Amino acid sequence: MPGKLKVKIVAGRHLPVMDRASDLTDAFVEVKFGNTTFKTDVYLKSLNPQWNSEWFKFEVDDEDLQDEPLQITVLDHDTYSANDAIGKVYIDIDPLLYSEAATVISGWFPIYDTIHGIRGEINVVVKVDLFNDLNRFRQSSCGVKFFCTTSIPKCYRAVIIHGFVEELVVNEDPEYQWIDRIRTPRASNEARQRLISLMSGELQRKIGLKVLEMRGNAVVGYLQCFDLEGESGLVVRAIGTACTLDKLSSPAAFLPACNSPSKEMKESPLVHPPSHGCRSTHNSPIHTATGSRLTQNFSVSVPTLIYTGMGSGSAGKEGGPFKALLRQQTQSALEQREFPFFTLTAFPPGFLVHVGGVVSARSVKLLDRIHNPAFVGIMGNTRSYKLLDWNSFNSDEPETRDAWWAEIRQEIKSHAKALGCHAVVGYSESTSICEEVCILSASGTAAVLNPRFLQDGTVEGCLEQRLEENLPAGCGFCHIPYDELNMPFPAHLTYCYNCRKQKVPDVLFTTIDLPIDATVIGKGCLIQARLCRLKKKAQAEANATAISNLLPFMEYEVHTQLMNKLKLKGMNALFGLRIQITVGENMLMGLASATGVYLAALPTPGGIQIAGKTPNDGSYEQHISHMQKKINDTIAKNKELYEINPPEVSEEIIGSPIPEPRQRSRLLRSQSESSDEVTELDLSHGKKDAFVLEIDDTDAMEDVHSLLTDVPPPSGFYSCNTEIMPGINNWTSEIQMFTSVRVIRLSSLNLTNQALNKNFNDLCENLLKSLYFKLRSMIPCCLCHVNFTVSLPEDELIQVTVTAVAITFDKNQALQTTKTHVEKSLQRASTDNEELLQFPLELCSDSLPSHPFPPAKEHLESASSNSGIPAAQRAVTVEKASPMGEGNFRNRSAPPCANSTVGVVKMTPLSFIPGAKITKYLGIINMFFIRETTSLREEGGVSGFLHAFIAEVFAMVRAHVAALGGNAVVSYIMKQCVFMENPNKNQAQCLINVSGDAVVFVRESELEVVSTQQPTANCQPSCTGGEVTT
Amino acid sequence: MTSELDIFVGNTTLIDEDVYRLWLDGYSVSDAVALRVRSGILEQTGATAAVLQSDTMDHYRTFHMLERLLHAPPKLLHQLIFQIPPSRQALLIERYYAFDEAFVREVLGKKLSKGTKKDLDDISTKTGITLKSCRRQFDNFKRVFKVVEEMRGSLVDNIQQHFLLSDRLARDYAAIVFFANNRFETGKKKLQYLSFGDFAFCAELMIQNWTLGAVDSQVDDMDVDLDKEFLQDLKELKMLVADKDLLDLHKSLVCTALRGKLGVFSEMEANFKNLSRGLVNVAAKLTHNKDVRDLFVDLVEKFVEPCRSDHWPLNDVRLFLNQYSASVHSLDGFRHQALWDRYMGTLRGCLLRLYHD
Questions:
Q1: Cα three-residue angle A666-A670-A674, rounded to 5 degrees
Q2: Do A943 and B1 touch (CB under 8 A)?
Q3: Which of A31, A445, A632, B158 has the fewest C-beta atoms under 10 angstroms from its C-beta?
Q4: Would you call A955 and B11 a contact, using CB atoms and an 8 Å cutoff?
Q5: Contact yes or no for A901 and B90 at CB 8 A
Q6: H-type helices in A841-973, by residue range?
Q7: Average pLDDT of the residues of chain B
């Protein structure tokens, strides 16, 4: 009996009226865990019942504790007929199972019903007594911590980063069982919610076991997804990165108060300057590995693109032998692993040595229909929803899915190898399903890692020191990891603009966050490529073949668009790249989002050159030159907007050592172009690195136009899809997380690719415009972690879901902060010097000022140039802030109303809270909800329905976090929002899956006052908890 | 391309004060968009009309969802669905319960019944306030009335506790509830010059001094119903005008004291008996519900209008009323001093407030 779960039902409030006659309710509560159920007394005639029950005690295995949710059902007692259910609360007790997280769950939970939504609240207290279990063969993995955060959580230190863990479980979807025809929608929804909750629990436990096997104690970057495969079942799969984490106990370890999350890491004892050099190219060689296996499972593996720069194994003179050594060690560390993948997107300093580029793989699969009548009978059994039962019938099923993913991962691995990398970071997997076709996608960034974190401390020592000696700050990760003489595809390399020692590509694409030490010029911006392709409706294999034939073209075009847009912004690198391909009945959609930046280490991007097909036609030429001018203007404007003004570097320093035949990448639109044209164009602009766009048909014209239609955000707004905005580090504390959903109906007539593209483009642009307008009161602010998801719920419907967080920043303070930051870093460097004598002096004192364009100088310059007019500047900001409608939001910190009892819970997709320190991680939040209505019109139509549902989901997440004693959710993500409507029947249904990490944070300003052990946020839950326990 | 669905949900519920105002004023989404366009917001922000439309729809939807909670403001504070900072919650409630002067003047003193609700069309046409807004204001009055009607304790406190209104607004609602309960006539033509503020001022004085609550704070309805016993007793005041000697003595006391101090002394002297009769008769009649309802009509007819026609300055009215009240204490034959003070103290305050153009 390894655990005792104790539950107490305290009270309810705001219950709905269940008895029309009395306008009251006779409520009681059923508490269920596993197969045991307890009931409270009936509290007669009240909408605010006070049950104040005894402690209900469940004695259970820890395996069950991990798998099962606690299920609380509130009912209305009816003497004559069946009791009516008011609603339910599912509580995941996992956070109580590891020692450092929450110790009690106590608070008000919304009572949720899948048909009526939230119907009142219930106050519950949950505790777990765990007994030590000496059984070594146990199936549970209690104690393994899970984090959604894709970096090392703030109050921990990574001792070892073990690597990739994955698992998936499969079951039949209750919605598609025969019994669904005779049960109510409510029963069906609840069966589904409960099943998914169980599956998640089981999955998490299994992953935990794998982590324990690897001798880790935590999973970071845990990403769990559901594939609703319809009749063929329900797949729950998860990936993550196993780590051994150490809690930073001394408060000194997470030192002062810095607005940017990055500094914190710098303060950690592991500080040492990262590597140097940079390079990347983005050539798009198409590795077409179209191996279609038409066995029992149809499968087409789709060509994969490797976006990136290629590398130099040869490296710089001094770096060479060392690098080889490093590689050897890393290799040995990584080779033991099947998949050297990491779901992390941000890393401890020194972890990431080089970045190769983006690797991705897709595969089209046909889902099998499962006809197994025998199955149904068994499902009626007591523990029917346990997946194991199901597996016994279709034992090959999970293996099939496993095999699919294994195939893709293998492909990713080989792509990484081709880039001279042993590892893939920022790794993620996704699916898109339409009827029986499923596209599996995986992508990541090929990288070379420092072995130090990958195995037990043996390697440390001299290697570490050498690393530190050899890698200059801010550019190391850009340096190509591959062999210059043996590049997998043609790339254009130059010597790093930062250190001049190593080679870098001209463009770098990655799926990770911008490394904190990267030297960036100016600010970043969100860059999106959007694309639609019509597809004939087809069945089964023909359909899958059609899709897999389209995919490479889509990938290619998405990539082209990204390149063009990046150039248009005058930038040279993309971070956080996420390409989503969505399949629908009659079309495919591609949406790529990334954050463009200008990396100081990479060469200045050339412009975009437009070339006409018929150079002799006068008017046409005029048109072309007009377009050219427009493009040039846009580039110039963008450079100004994003403050990209890299210092002029004299040619001799950079270019000379590399013989450069043609310093430009060509974008080939049509195969028919002649080589003469190239030279011709070459003459037309002497500048290197020009990007040529040939306008040889209307399609190309469209593309050029669409390039120019993207409107920059209004002044005062920035946007990015990474954690932090490059170039902004003075966040103020105001944050607003939001979800916005739009669905458009395409007119089914005359659907062409162009019309479709335009519609899709407009949809996204309008959505962004709306966001800017809505959040205008927060100016100056930045939309961070902008996450777009596209789905095609029906033939003519396109649904776009965006989740992001708007964070305000202080324009004026910026200058000061950067200044002090620089001072601090200089200071720190010098203290480091004294302490660690092995630190070469040049690095600290010389390197910064001696750079041609060191960050310090940059900041100081801007500081001094602006300091003359501080008053005027301040005036501007004040003026901007005050007249805005929502200006009062700033007063959030004002003393709350005396009678307000609801504590504020912040939610953010980021891993940090600006201006605050996360003091405790309370556990993972992973929730799945279904909401259905048969009175769509009455609930305000589809918009009203979904608006209310999303608000309810937020509320339930907040309530769970508050009950755990937390005051924020970080790394929040809405993984799924599946919306289906049937307006004719006045019906709609929506499924939402969200996750994140519940945390306790303390404002930096309060940090000095409040003792770290008793965060103010605990106030509310502990009060109620205290009352009850005594 | 048509937008099927378009929503924005923030973890902190976004409230746009301007849109809230338009919503409260009862404008439809399209009217609200048109008004916002006219305010020049498009130029300021560089947004398009479509963006404005979508934004307005979103806010309207939010307000619609919040409305249910606004009907019982404490629910807004405890609910979990919308995370709204306390200062914003207060603003939402305060604005929702705010009312238009023009509207309240139409409804003040009327029975808050279905019948009155049917007349809202006319009120809307007359005042230019949208019917939707009229309905909201009427329903607010009615809701507050229903909740506090039979409650023990201070009316203002009860309203504040159950509707979380500011002190100022709670006092206004107390006046509305008091007037609705006692059905004071306020719509007559000769009362048109009076503002809601005038009536609210009088209501407050009357609640303080003339209700059950003024003598006993432990009874139901204490602040809503007038003290019936007190009204009965007021008959006793009649001797002040019925007893000729008393009336003359009263007059001479007042005249002696005010001689030389009053600009309109002669007019006062000439009118004293009429005025005094008027004021005392009003008191004596208050036993009948009908006459209670006409209290303000009577006060204006019997006192305000005569004085106004003689062009009494306000200060003279004040001096007169002070002296008129005080002199009664010197009337040896009059035994109801306390009753007189309870009546006249309030009436004096009311009359001074009512006395303007």
A1: 70
A2: no
A3: A632
A4: no
A5: no
A6: 841, 847-850, 855-867, 870-881, 941-963
A7: 89
Let me know if B123 is exposed, middle or buried by CB neighbors in 10 A (0-12, 13-18, 19+).
Answer: buried
C-alpha radius of gyration, chain A, whole number: 29
What do you get for the CA distance between the two ends of chain B, in Å?
61
Spatial separation of the C-alpha atoms in residues A897 and A889, rounded to whole Å: 15
Q: Is A279 helix (H, G, I), strand (E, B) or coil?
A: coil
Does the beta carbon of B4 lie under 8 angstroms from any beta carbon of chain A? yes
Pairing of strands A3-13, A56-60: antiparallel
Residues 128-187 of B with CB under 8 A from A: 164
How far is the C-alpha of A28 from the C-alpha of A40, rounded, in Å? 6
List chain A residues with CB under 8 Å of B37: none
Q: Take residue B292 and report the two structure tokens written for it.
A: 């209670």
End-to-end CA distance of chain A: 26
To the nearest 5 percent, what fractions of chain A are helix, strand and coil? Answer: 35, 30, 35
* ipTM value for the complex: 0.89
Q: Could you give the CA distance from residue A660 to residue A655 in angstroms, rounded to a whole number?
A: 8
Taking an 8 Å cut-off on Cβ atoms, the answer to whether A770 and B54 are in contact is yes
Q: Which residues of A touch B1 (CB under 8 A)?
A: 744-747, 759, 762-763
What element of type H or E holds B341? helix B337-354
String of DSSP letters for A876-901: HHHHHHTTSGGGGGGGGGSPPPTT--
Say if the Cβ atoms of A979 and B5 lie within 8 Å: yes
> Rounded to an integer, what distance in angstroms lies between the CA atom of residue A422 and that of residue A655?
30
Instruction: Give the least confident one: A100-114, B207-221, B261-275.
Output: B207-221
What is the structure's pLDDT at A329?
54
**Residue contact B86–A906, C-beta within 8 A:** no
Mean pLDDT, to the nearest integer, of A557-572? 88
Place of tokens 């998405």: A558
pTM for this entry: 0.82
Closest approach of chain A CAs to the CA of B119, in angstroms? 28
How far does B30 lie from chain A, in Å, by closest CA? Answer: 17
- Chain B CB contacts of A955 below 8 Å: 80-83
B93 touches chain A (CB under 8 A): no
Structure tokens at A435: 């009827």
pLDDT for A266 equals 34
CB-based contact A997:A153 (threshold 8 Å): yes
| Spatial contact of A205 and A63, defined as CB atoms under 8 Å apart | yes
Q: Cβ A894–B86 below 8 Å, yes or no?
A: yes
- Model confidence over A729-758: pLDDT tens digits? 788 888 999 999 999 988 766 678 888 888
User: Would you state the pLDDT for residue A118?
Assistant: 93
Tens of pLDDT, residues A586-641: 889 999 999 999 988 888 887 777 776 665 666 777 777 888 888 888 888 888 88
- Looking at this protein, which amino acid is placed at residue A659? P
Residue of A nearest to B16 (CA): A885
